[in-house]
């Protein structure tokens, strides 16, 4: 348990907070005393989740369902408030030892102790499923060992059976190594998924090992879906039942009630292995008599998910600017009611309202310059149209290449009374902070370049992505492999230097089965060379290679090693590795991007000609995409009937729009960018130290894209 921070409240809903039990993606969990003096665990949900209108309804429903759980191996729901600024849920506190810690400290359990553990967990899952819930995160860390038996805790990502999931389809919810194959694939899950997780927990407790091995997340997910579990060391008495729980097909797994009947009643006498009762007792003794700390802050949880409190200078700056923005917005509400056309007579200029488009990026980054030039062409083209209802102006802010600078730039631009929307030209490292600043400022943000999985929750923000993220994979090269190369096997080389980000590509190619042929996975540690893996790949010289990584230097090293090993198969990768070192080493490689070459793309010829007339050189990457972003925004503003800033996002979501680089459309429920036959994916080939345009996604393998 951690001390309370200065930013933590002292009280929530009448519960006095004592310390922090933990924090995660959904929120912060505190140790607290209820108004009646009972110890409880109080979970506060982060505001970004609560901002989703549907979330509160689901949270309320699931809290009510969880309150029905009365089995002896669950912890009771004591109180909840779904309508609080940051919703919270209080459950009984169990001063026990997590099963994960117990196994790590004392090693595997024997059958005599495994059997009562399995009986209790099967019984609690049967109760959970009977109440209409699926836990979805059964793992050793969520099993607390108390003297009188185990408790299953943390229903933070549980959901009602048949209800709309709290997360979008296609994203993994749960803990790799303990989630089911259907969870690993991002599909809807039911009670059978919890049974699979129970099998993983029991096998881990029996062996001390992860049932699907270690390594990167992508490798664990791959083995979960495609390989058999490692059950060496599971006692023979439980081996058959654990194997049934770990069946790949959910329909082949036993139900929790059937498991409970087979395993029998929990036997409390001597159920904990030697040495653990003393640890459990020590854990409980630390809680008894804890003093309630002095007050920290009076206010409840703040809008950012963390409870409000004394602010850092940066946060004070943001809050002050946000307050100023509120005043500006009030004034703007009247200002936007100007009539669109107010001619006073022949020859009198038409007075039109003006909308500003804010562009954020790093001035030292050539991508910002490219965005700026493409955006200015769109602004000029709009303002030359005599039928226009409003004028546009472009303002650019330098974020200094940092996340904090990006947030400050967003606040600064949003505080201008005529700013209608912002465009983020920044990187995966900076744009997530821009998103949060725009949520606070209540202004639409269009994201052109960044593609991190941290942007995969658009329905709870004011942002819209104008491209597919890495979650759906490098679409152009996947299509190239399937439609042109058609290899019998593709080896995915996963560079663990940036394991979390690059894991999305591995999942799409292997777990989601987006490649038609057989796949194999090779993981390469951050400090490891590619010589060994290249030699293994070259043993099957016709195999294709997909590099899943983000660093040009690492991709260059793999290309050099494959060439030295005389590998002959096709080699493909994604846009992040494009850099001088890679281009020198990777002759013949195919690269998928989210930007087109406007000079070579037959559908962007008119734009390229205008760009050349204006700037005396060919358009650089991202110029055409920025042009489309401004035109897309103008298309939405034209439909808002003078209420541009506050109605823009809703209008942009309303119907598809066709630009010069892509068709822009969004999923009606999650507001995700819809990748389709014209979804902004492009294929390049490395030739002579440069990346040369080959085709758009829909032309790959169709006979119209050069060699494709």
From TrEMBL:
Domain annotation Protein kinase: ranges: 15-263
MF-aspect GO terms: ATP binding; protein serine/threonine kinase activity
Keywords: ATP-binding, Kinase, Nucleotide-binding, Serine/threonine-protein kinase, Signal, Transferase
CDD domains associated with the record: STKc_PknB_like
Binding site for ATP: 43
Ligase is among the record's keywords: no
Family note: Belongs to the leucine-binding protein family.
UniProt cross-references to PANTHER family, sorted A to Z: MITOGEN-ACTIVATED PROTEIN KINASE KINASE KINASE 20-RELATED (PTHR43289), SERINE_THREONINE-PROTEIN KINASE YBDM-RELATED (PTHR43289:SF34)
The protein, known as: Serine/threonine protein kinase
Native species: Streptomyces prasinopilosus
